[in-house]
Amino acid sequence: MANASMEEFEALLNESFEMDTPEEGSVVKGKVIAIEAGQAIIDVGYKMEGRVELKEFANPGEAPEIAVGDEVEVYLRAAENARGEAVISREMARREEAWDRLEKAYADDQRVEGAIFGRVKGGFTVDLGGAVAFLPGSQVDVRPVRDAGPLMGLKQPFQILKMDRRRGNIVVSRRAILEESRAEQRAEVIGNLTEGQSVDGVVKNITEYGAFVDLGGVDGLLHVTDMAWRRVNHPNEILNIGETVKVQVIKINKETHRISLGMKQLQEDPWDLVGAKYPLSSVHKGRVTNITDYGAFVELEPGVEGLVHVSEMSWTKKNVHPGKIVSTSQEVDVMVLEIDGAKRRVSLGLKQTMRNPWEVFAETHPEGTEVEGEVKNITEFGLFIGLDGDIDGMVHLSDLSWDERGEEAIQSYHKNDVVQAVVSEVDVEKERISLSIKALGGDKFAEAVGGVKRGSIVTVNVTAIEDGGIEVEYEGMKSFIRRSDLSRDRAEQRPERFSVGDKVDVRVTNVDSKTRRLGLSIKAREIAEEKEAVQQYGSSDSGASLGDILGAALKTGDD
Length: 559
Description:
Blueprint: H1 2-20, E1 26-36, E2 39-45, E3 48-53, E4 71-78, E5 87-89, H2 90-107, E6 112-120, E7 123-127, E8 132-136, E9 155-164, E10 169-173, H3 175-191, E11 198-206, E12 210-214, E13 219-223, E14 244-253, E15 258-262, H4 274-277, E16 283-292, E17 295-301, E18 304-309, E19 331-340, E20 345-349, H5 357-364, E21 370-379, E22 382-387, E23 391-396, H6 406-409, E24 418-427, E25 432-436, H7 444-448, E26 457-466, E27 469-474, E28 477-482, E29 503-512, E30 517-521, H8 522-537, H9 546-558
Parallel strand pairs: 13-15, 18-20, 23-25
Antiparallel strand pairs: 1-2, 1-4, 2-3, 4-5, 6-7, 6-9, 7-8, 9-10, 11-12, 11-14, 12-13, 14-15, 16-17, 16-19, 17-18, 19-20, 21-22, 21-24, 22-23, 24-25, 26-27, 26-29, 27-28, 29-30
């Protein structure tokens, strides 16, 4: 019985040791029995006491809250140190407790409360009630934060992004919380908006393509093309950041929560009155707003712009850039050529407000008028002469000289030479003016042979004797009579029987106005005279000799 009692007592004693003696490395409950020298003395049971710095009972930035008699949980690092005291830590107990709590929150995807208390490279440190987490700079707010001072020490919710207990790493985000609340707020605001509704908003940001307007927790995009009916080159022309504007909700995308806004939709569309205000062929003043390679845009009124195509800019400047004819902001007179209401396009003309220079030239310079101008260009087919009205006239090779071939005559002309010419033709439709330099002194050939026809008998002067015939002159026009045309009789076809200065009657065999030559023949005159004599005085068959007939004809002529 005694042995049994001893065994029972030993078992109970061992059990009490196991129950009362806490295990090192675990969290145990204790009671504050005294506070001295900035430390709390805590009884953790089994006659074990330990000391904990008071600051371990304080949250970052706060005073410690601890009093004698308080029950607290501490971490037992060692049962006894050199002084016979337990080595305990409130901070490590809080950390263990915090990790258990945080792991559960992470598993349940729940928010945790914490306070930012320090700045480190790349971000901040956050106290999550005993565990320290890292808050990356990009996760502080939805937009970059320049000054995080107001956020320090402030208890607020965070989302755990990643945690590793073994390594002691926790990464949290404040931005995820804000985005979630923004999304809720956004959904609520969007739910209260309808397309076509007019609302007030504040301009938050301006870009090249538009402006972002805050509608009370949700941003909408006001595109530059929807700001005004007129052309807006940059949004800052009409908007300022922080300005309150009235806008219309044009479109709401329920999936992406994107809102498109417009300002011009709240104003009267000037295009509704364009047809009545700008009839076809009417002339109006406008301002050049933009210049491109293909023309210039002219504003007739705010919101109504028309295009002057490069082909409608000048009568004379055909292949030049529009910027050489007009400049931005210049006021110009334009004519309405076409209106397309559906496409909101107006075609304008600049040259139509000025008279066609070819029409003006045709009125002021009828055919035969003498003109003077500078040689602008020399080509293989003639000269281009600059004329009044900034237009050119052309002298064809064939109109350069009466006496020389065109290819030879053009050699004596050079660029920038000032020359006189006569207007020979003006074609307004084809914008072409034909000039003649050789016609300046009149047409000497036409004047000389005006009454001369083929078959006429004329008197010419012999000017030169050559082996092949004789050169003669009629009214200043030179011609050549070949040896075979010098006489009806072959024996008399000798050039040497003529002398320079002789006057000879000849028959005109040809009048060539192109080569400007008379075809002349003594032989043809003699044959014609013989024929006429035979017809008048009898036939050669009647027995009378030719000599008798010609003698009689000559005698009659003498009488």
